[in-house]
Write a structure and sequence with these properties.
The complex is a heterodimer of chains A (about 325) and B (about 425).
Chain A lengths: L11 H28 L4 H13 L3 H6 L7 E3 L4 E3 L29 H5 L2 H4 L2 H4 L8 H6 L11 H6 L4 H13 L9 H12 L7 E2 L2 E2 L28 H10 L1 H4 L12 H12 L14 H8 L16
Antiparallel strand pairs in A: 1-2, 3-4
Chain B lengths: L1 H12 L7 H10 L9 E3 H4 L1 H4 L2 H20 L9 H10 L4 H28 L8 H23 L4 H14 L6 H9 L6 H32 L7 H7 L23 H4 L9 E3 H26 L21 H13 L1 E3 L2 E3 L2 H22 L16 H24 L21
Antiparallel strand pairs in B: 1-2, 3-4
Helix pairs in contact in B: 5-7, 5-11, 5-14, 6-7, 7-8, 7-14, 8-11, 8-16, 15-16, 15-17
The chains are: A mainly alpha (about 325), B mainly alpha (about 425).
Chain lengths: ~325, ~425
């Protein structure tokens, strides 16, 4: 015998229906929040503003062609995915936009440096540090937990007693390691001179050359700071600081060391430390490494008259 | 008006609607997807207070993990060079990528917890007796599969957290007697973690373990039905059969003697009367949908509120201090650390005792328990039955100890694996710049 369907007072429909409705509403609410979070980006307002600014400086055509979205410089050869330009949209508009334009739209200063290191070949992070993948302000500049290469800032440099320019030279030396000296890299050049003058390789082996008294230094910039004794280091517990103080008074930092106390001026110690920390395992392919002769030539004082390379030959 | 609306809805949403409970039940039997539901389900099994629907919640999590996991597979590259970058892409460039990864991560960690609590529920209700012992074994295997799934997934982002957690985990496996080195070699695909390990873990994570878990899950569900539903009905059944009938000696009710102790008739659901049961369609199905929805909402809310952890890219040269195993294994790490004894220049590693023997023995006892349990059958299907007090207390004590060890490992262990009480300052570890 078939029973007709009728909801009884103790039926599960009566008990569960309200819950189902509540959970469905919660589900729609959560999905709505998800969409809101996805489309409320930090870069959205800048991309809204940028075409207007381009138009203001007479680039209406380019402004109309501007397509909003995540922008990136992708250079697989050197594993660079730099989305910095999603916000820093004015980076290659220095010819049009004034340097006084507020960040993040400020154009990158043009000059010899940029002419030799074009954005499409070098990206942003190889020089500036920071997290190229990120599309949020905090993550891009500071990185996440355990991020070892925060973006270089004047404040970060000042905390180590350096200027930002000096700190960036450490990164220049990733490629310019084998230059005897490089134009514009005064601090690293000073470090390289000191390295020769103090004859470090009498005790330390660097790239296969040198003594065995001290530790090998070829990739010293990759060291794990935790393996060093910081108990006698004054001030910040950074590997940079350890090296600076160790170069000045080795016996104070490591009483058992055989390394003499050089008592060198702190600026010399900082220059040498920047040089040492620049020695990292790098993923730059050979075409990124400058020929040492080029740099040597560039360091020569410019003669009064330069013979033109393509001047017609006379017989 | 209301009837008209109701009729309109039926015309729009249904091509057919059941006119009776029987028609409704036939809808289940005739439907491929619904056929593994019973036609009728005991009211006792429907109670939230009995099972908390933890098994259904585990199944919902497995479904969420499978769907989000397949979607993540479209973006993830299992190579040491690309893995970390592909996770960063998911976080910053893929539409809803961060949400997807967050939901997958929290559902995975939730599943470890829910599957364990589900097992605790089955233990405390004594629901693994008699024919259900087999399903308890399947459940233990499913718990093991869940832990392995979570652990293999842990390595895939290829960040410092992943790299060193798996270093710790496989380091413990290496301490197993006789097979230790071979086991580590099989897990790592070599002597240390590298591309070959990542590929192994990936293949295990996206194919073998999920397929294993789904097949086992299917069997687990089928078995629940064939064993007569949830043990929640046993008290009722025991009440109805106050003097268990003797099985006639001449007659064997089970082909292989699997149904121990009672005849088939006593254990069949025919003991339940009409008023004890409701039609599975729509009552059971509606409530299952509700549980799925609650679990989905919970994981989605977690994904919106908390980001899945991701540290710097894996660096074999720099060990984070301290390097911790995933939380569900951190109690083993804690055991290993606290059973390691230093005698002058000699160190007796606790890895064998804490990492292999203790969990091995616990797992063996867990699997064998239904066959060792001597408590009376009247305790079946009751929460904290008085005549199961002793074993419930032992189970709770072991679980409590594990939870305390997890808490200590996760929250109180700081640099150099030293104890730091909440609020105690932890030493700042030196950084590069």
């Amino acid at each position: 015998m078939e029973q007709p369907l009728k909801p009884s007072p103790d039926s599960y429909e009566a008990r569960d229906f309200g819950w189902l409705v509540a959970m469905s509403l919660l589900f729609f609410g959560l999905v709505a929040i998800g969409f809101w979070r996805e489309y409320r980006t930090e870069w959205g307002p800048y991309q809204h503003e940028f075409p207007e600014i381009l138009g203001h400086y007479g680039k209406g055509e380019e402004a109309r062609k501007f397509i909003p979205g995540i922008k990136q410089i992708w250079i697989p050869q050197i594993a660079v995915t730099d989305r910095c330009i999603t916000c820093h949209l004015g980076y290659d508009w220095s010819a049009i936009l004034p340097p006084s334009l507020a960040q993040p739209l400020t154009p990158h200063p043009a000059g010899d440096l940029i002419a030799k290191h074009p954005f499409e070949k070098f990206g942003c992070t190889p020089c500036h540090g920071g997290q190229g993948w990120a599309t949020t302000v905090n993550a891009a500049h500071i990185g996440g937990p355990g991020w070892i290469d925060p973006m270089l800032t004047p404040a970060l440099a000042a905390s180590q007693g350096l200027t930002m320019d000096q700190m960036m030279q450490m990164r220049c030396n990733f490629c310019h390691r084998h230059d005897e000296a490089t134009p514009g890299m005064d601090v690293i050049n000073r470090g390289k001179t000191l390295l020769r003058k103090r004859k470090c390789i009498l005790c330390h082996s660097i790239e296969g050359r040198g003594g065995n008294t001290g530790p090998e230094l070829t990739y010293e910039g990759d060291s794990n700071p935790e393996l060093y004794d910081f108990s006698r280091v004054a001030g910040q517990k950074t590997f940079f600081n350890w090296n600076v103080q160790h170069l000045m008074h080795a016996s104070r930092i490591t009483p058992t060391t055989q390394m003499p106390d050089y008592n060198m001026p702190i600026d010399d110690a900082r220059a040498l430390t920047l040089l040492i920390l620049s020695w990292r395992r790098q993923s730059f392919p050979p075409e990124y490494i400058p020929a040492p002769s080029e740099a040597a030539a560039a360091m020569q004082p410019t003669p009064a008259t330069t013979p033109s390379a393509n001047a017609p030959e006379h017989h | 008006m209301r009837e008209r609306l109701s009729k309109l809805w039926r015309t729009l949403a249904w091509s057919w609607s059941p006119a009776s409970e029987r028609e409704s039940s036939e809808a289940i039997v005739k439907n491929f997807w619904l056929h593994w539901f019973p036609v009728k389900v005991a009211r006792a099994s429907m109670d939230f207070n009995y099972s908390f629907w933890l098994g259904t919640a585990s199944a919902a999590l497995l479904a969420i993990l499978t769907i989000t996991g397949v979607m993540l597979m479209f973006f993830y590259v299992p190579s040491t060079e690309r893995a970390y970058g592909s996770i960063k892409d998911l976080e910053y460039a893929v539409s809803f990528g961060r949400l997807l990864r967050n939901q997958h991560r929290w559902a995975a960690e939730g599943m470890v917890a829910v599957v364990f609590i589900h097992m605790a529920r089955v233990f405390f209700t004594g629901a693994y007796r008699g024919p259900r012992a087999m399903n308890w074994l399947v459940g233990v295997a499913l718990l093991f599969a869940t832990l392995l799934l979570s652990f293999t997934g842990y390595l895939l982002p290829w960040d410092q957290l992943a790299y060193w957690a798996v270093t710790v985990g496989t380091g413990i496996a290496r301490q197993a007697p006789i097979v230790g080195n071979t086991l580590a070699l099989i897990l790592l695909g070599g002597n240390q973690i590298g591309q070959q390990t990542l590929l192994r873990f990936y293949v295990m994570h996206v194919f073998f373990l999920p397929v294993f878990a789904w097949i086992l899950f299917g069997y687990h569900m089928w078995r629940v039905r064939k064993d007569g539903g949830l043990a929640a009905i046993e008290p009722l059944r025991n009440a109805r059969t106050s003097t268990p009938r003797e099985t006639p000696a001449a007659k064997s009710y089970s082909l292989f003697g699997v149904t121990v102790g009672t005849s088939v008739a006593v254990r069949s659901s025919m003991q339940l009367e009409e008023r004890d049961q409701v039609a599975a369609s729509p009552n059971l199905i509606r409530r299952m949908m509700l549980v799925f929805l609650i679990v989905f909402n919970a994981t989605l809310a977690a994904a919106l509120l908390f980001n899945a952890p991701l540290e710097g890219p894996a660096n074999p040269a720099v060990t984070p201090n301290p390097a911790k195993a995933p939380w569900y294994f951190v109690w083993l790490q804690e055991l290993v650390a606290s059973t390691t004894i230093h005698l002058g220049p000699y160190t007796v590693s606790g890895a064998l005792l804490g990492g292999i023997l203790v969990p091995g023995i616990l797992l063996a006892i867990l699997a064998a328990w239904p066959f060792l349990d001597q408590s009376p059958r009247e305790a079946e299907g009751l929460w904290f039955a008085r005549n199961r007090n002793r074993q419930n207390l032992v189970f709770a004590a072991i679980t409590g100890a594990i939870i305390i060890l997890i808490f200590v490992g996760v929250f109180l262990r700081g640099p150099y694996w030293r104890l730091y009480w909440p609020g105690m300052p932890r030493p700042a570890m030196p950084t590069l710049m």
